[in-house]
Amino acid sequence: MRNIKANISVGFSETQEPVMENNSVERMDDGSFTLILDSQNEFNIDHLENALLQTSYPALLAVLFEHLEQAVPTSRKRLPRFVQSGRLKTKTIIH
User: In what order do the strands lie in the sheet with 93-94?
Assistant: First the structure.
């Protein structure tokens, strides 16, 4: 039996990209999730914390779903019900 290693990387960086509408999270081509905040929120702890939570949750779900799909490729019956029902699917843009 193999062990499972979980890892995550989180950070903030400056950008010239426009602020995202409705604080929506976008999945990037590399599988990461991004949310661009207005510069006025740079020191607002509530907005910064919310941005981290909004971007990490869909990333966690995506990794969990991908792992379960790979771990049980032949028998979806062994997957938890919330995965079987499709409730764990991720979308490109999450509101």
Answer: 33-34, 25-27, 93-94
